[in-house]
Automatic annotation (TrEMBL):
Protein name in the entry: Adenylate kinase
This enzyme's EC code(s): 2.7.4.3
Any one Pfam family match given in the protein's UniProt record, by short name: ADK
Localization terms from the record: Cytoplasm
Sample GO molecular function, one term: ATP binding
Originating species: Streptomyces genisteinicus
Gene name as annotated: adk
Domains (record comment): Consists of three domains, a large central CORE domain and two small peripheral domains, NMPbind and LID, which undergo movements during catalysis. The LID domain closes over the site of phosphoryl transfer upon ATP binding. Assembling and dissambling the active center during each catalytic cycle provides an effective means to prevent ATP hydrolysis.
Higher taxonomy: Bacteria, Bacillati, Actinomycetota, Actinomycetes, Kitasatosporales
Keyword ATP-binding part of the UniProt annotation: yes
Pathway annotation from the record: Purine metabolism; AMP biosynthesis via salvage pathway; AMP from ADP: step 1/1
Residues bound to AMP: T31, R36, N57, L58, V59, G85, F86, P87, R88, Q92, R161, R172
Amino acid sequence: MRIVLVGPPGAGKGTQAAFLAKNLSIPHISTGDLFRANISQGTELGKQAKAYMDAGNLVPDEVTIGMAKDRMSQPDAVNGFLLDGFPRNVGQAEALDGMLKGEGVALDAVLDLEVPEDEVVKRIAGRRVCRNNSAHVFHVAYTPPKTEGVCDECGGELYQRDDDSEGTVRKRLEVYHTQTEPIIDYYRAQGLVVTISALGKVGDVTARAMEALEGDKAA
C-alpha cells in the first residue's frame, strides 16, 4: 500500500507510523529522517537543506520533494510506503501526485488522525523531559514521575522544553491549519481520505487504523 499519514502535532503520527509500517510490511518514510539522512550523508540535497536551516530559513519545497523522490525510488519502497510529514502542503501533494503518475502508480489512502485541539495542547504541553537524558520522557497527566520534577530513571531534573509550551503548541497548530490541513480537502476530492480518532491507547488507535485501511482497500 501507498499511504500518506496526516494529523496535527501531538496526534501520535510518528508512533502510529512505526506500528502501521511494520504491520503492512512497508517502509516508514518521515521528513525528519529524510533530512537527517541526507545531511549526515552529505548529499547535494542535504547540503542545500543544511544551508537553509543554518541560516534559519525554511527548506524550499523543491529540496524536500527531491529527497522524498529519491527515497521512494529505493528498492524497499517499490511495493509501497507510508509517508509521515510529507506532503506538508498542497504544492507538495501535487508534486507527489506527479511523481507517482510518472511511475504508473497512485496513493491507496490518506489516513487522517483526528484529535481535538485541546487534547493536542494537553498532550504536548504536559510533557516533561529529563535534563540528563532526553530519552526519559514523562507527562504530568498520563505518565507522571513518582516525585514531581524528578526523573524516575536517574534522578535528573524534569523540565518543559520551550517548544512544548502552550503558546508554542498553539502556534504550531496555526501553521498546521494554514499549511497542512488543506491537503486533507485536496485528497478528499480524490476519495482517498480515511479519518479515524487518534484518542485512546496506542494499540487501540493502531487497530482502528488497520481496520480502516483494510476496509478502504477492500472497497
